[in-house]
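1st attempt posting a full record on here, be nice pls
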Amino acid sequence: MVVFIEKKCIFTAFFKYLNMKFNRFLILFTVLLTICTIIFSCNSGKDKNGGKDNDTTNVESEKIKYPKDTTLDQIAALLAGDNADAFKKVFTDDMTFWNDYKISIDTPWQRITDERLAKMDKWSKAEVSSKINDTALMFYPFSGPDFLNAYHLFPNANDYILIAMEKLGTIPELYSMTEKDLDAYLDAVNFGLRDIYKRSYFITGNMDQDLRKQKVDGVLPLLYVFLNRTGHEIYEFGYYRLENDGISLTKIEKPTNSLEVSECIWFKIMKKGDNKLKNLFYFYADISNDGFVKNPVFLQYLKNIRTCNTFIKSASYLSHYETFSNIRDLVLENSASVLEDDTGIPYRYFIDDWDHYLYGIYEKPIADFQSTYLFQKDLDEEYKKADVKALDFSLGYHWRSGNQNWMLYVKKKDQTAEETKTEGQD
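the predicted structure (as tokens):
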């Protein structure tokens, strides 16, 4: 009995020892597992925010920060002939008219991409972005709805302001349309793009017909097309009115289409794959001197915009006339650079305080604008003696001959430093 009791005590003690060791092992294992989890989480966070995947993660964080109305991209995709996934209930089973519409946009778009847009991208990177602060605000007076060329020449701009006399427009209830009505509307949208396909600019007379009297009642659907085709996602859209302080923008239900008040379309957009939310404004406004007399608040707004890069093309030589002296002076004062063809501000205004870069071929204005006053002898002389680089794309009034001219004027640094403004209201 004595022996049995001694053995039992030995075994009991042994098992207590093993149990104690096992508990210690479990505690140690738990601690180690917690430490590993923390280390892995920290490393994972660093990889997402500071490593190779930085852009992707930032995009996701932007998407969380900026809630997105997905119907806006659906509308843009439909109008641009990209896809009609959200509108399948409108179509018949074979979707014949949609496929025809898609081809009717894809075909000219591929052509202008090859002949114009891709070449513009390379030229802009080499000749424009390298000489300016290309992330500054991009200002485009006399623009029409031409976000397409604005983006391809200034892809890195942080915001865009477009101004023209074409009305803002609306989008009909696309989701509830009949197939016949939707077919007619899409054809009207594509018809409104015909001058961009053929000439690279909108013709005022055609815009009167296309955007004021037909099914497409303004620039809005064309802006949707350009946003989709330039690879942008649309986060927000609205109509806004400029308040009397010349700074504040108030959201409105629909535009009044009155030139005596300042109304705009405001898109919040993001380039796919990017992490920067940008603003695109299109103002319906008369920027002649008389227009500013009737709407002085808009002139005040423009005077207060931050330092910008200005783009002027196919602008009917309006800045040559004293009736547009206010917008001309404003551009010269606010701009760090001006990229324009000869329809913009005359060369004589850039002789002092600006560096000059000339491109293409300068020749007399086309027949619609032939005037002794509009032909710039001083610019012609400068083209003859300066180091002028060739252009391998056509963008402007001389689309038939291809003899386009482009000038980049960059304000000298001491002048820009004096005039630089802080970030403004937009």
